[in-house]
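Example complex used in Figure S2.
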Amino acid sequence: MRIRLLLIISVCLQLSGIARAQAQGKPAGPQFLSVAAPSTGADELLKVGAKAWSQITPKHIALNRTPPLYDTDEPAGLDIPSVDVRLARASGRLFVQLSWRDATQDATTLTEVPNTPPETRFRKVQTEADDRFFDAAAVMFPAKPGTAMTPSLQMGDAENPVEIYYWNATRGAMLMQAQGRGTTRRTGQSFTASGTYQSGQWNLILELPDLPTGTPLAFAVWNGGQKDRDGRKYFSVWQVLE
Amino acid sequence: MSKHQYAMVMDLNKCLGCQTCTIACKKLWTDRDGTGYMYWNNVETRPGLGYPRQWDRIGGGWKDGALQPSPLPTMDDYGHPWEYNYEQRLYEGKRQPVMPSPEPTSGCNWDEDVGGMNEDENYFFYLPRICNHCTYPACLEACPRKAIYKREEDGIVVIDQDRCQGYRYCIKACPYKKIYFNEVTGKSEKCIFCYPRLEKGEVNACAAQCPGRLRFVGLLDDPESPVHKLVLIHKIALPLFPEKGTQPNVFYVPPFNPPKRENYGKSIQEDPRVPLNYLIYLFGPDVKDVLTRLESELKKTQEGGRSEILQLLIGRDAETRYHVRPQLVQIQV
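Predicted assembly (575 residues):
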């Protein structure tokens, strides 16, 4: 009962925050994200240019820059102030399209490592650069959707673990889990994702398991050009799946 | 604080700059994909650029209890690794000479034997470097993943490859720039002080292969070990850049009697063939006392006496130079 009360209070606070932000003409904080149900199949939704996506009005989600985490961090400006989010449901899966402006495409194709052991080869694959970081994005949601408590925005907490669907422009998609800041770990599993960069904009589609109404979702964007990695990134506050 | 601390002493008076240690390390640990530019052990000419170049000037370490900023060295600072066209020459019958590719522009000990000038005289010496396995590792503090830890049983600092996410805060934090990023694996790597060898009672590969017999290995807290004697009893070995605040566990016997014409019998302080200020720059102000001690030992032997310190530094056999104690170090399983 107490948990339900807390949830109601939290939603009311979020809604009043939206109203206040809208009144001030600023991008809203927490928003309800509606999910389209196009008749298109799942394969079509993995294409950025699919007609079904163009028919969905994006939600404009404000991004925040994490404050400097370490004394030695170089300062970084708010180069990516927002991300546009579109959601669609098909074949029992939830498809998320994230679109954001980024002046530089920080991505590369790493040399494929042959299957043969390195000691049997004349040539080894070399490290081409040691100081580059790549563009990336992620969607975070509670590992146990449907529970009343919203996890901590800092990678969940001990009672409320989170799942993180992370995509890196060079290294691809990887599923992560966390129970609080510093606990994020790769599960070794991947998922379907498709990212394209065109005319200064990233369009990324992630295929997630279906999530129930009311599930909180948070978004993050890493800008390789700003040496983003780890908690050095852009993040949204929790949004709510409608 | 670890229960024990493995340490190494390198006598710079004996280093030939032959890179046998470098090759021993490379063949054993960094002959893999993504590790071409990694030299967990390298030997550089001093004064000189170092590897990566200008590592001693770009930052990191501690000051007043806080980590100091530093940029990441670039591949230009390391030199892009090159390969030779052995396939064409040896197997495909092409008659062109064996050539490196890409064209080398910098590399490990790129400025070999260039050194510096001191009153119209050229001088240089070699500085072999490994990870210092510091008592207060800046890399460990900087890692938000807690992927770096100092082994409680022997003080060796290692990177857990399962936890490392390749953020490279450790590389920035290390004032000695002895951590390298492997872009193929997406993780950072460093010298592991050959702990798998030590656990079997074998000394580090770099030490075992050194033809100059300049490396001494043992537990700093073991009174029987040569490193304990050289560092704590005789006080003739010093850490590199002590002001960086990490308290290294690799120590150097400074060059104290480099040869020069017409200086026979003169101490380095009477006739500084290597400028004293440069040695102070590397090893801190205590280097003066160390030089005084070493010179008095040398004088003692020149007058027909016997110096326990110099006998130890000669290090005739492996039993003298190494005191590996796997039975003392209880490995945590």
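The mean pLDDT of chain B is 94. Residues 287-302 of chain B form the longest helix (16 residues).
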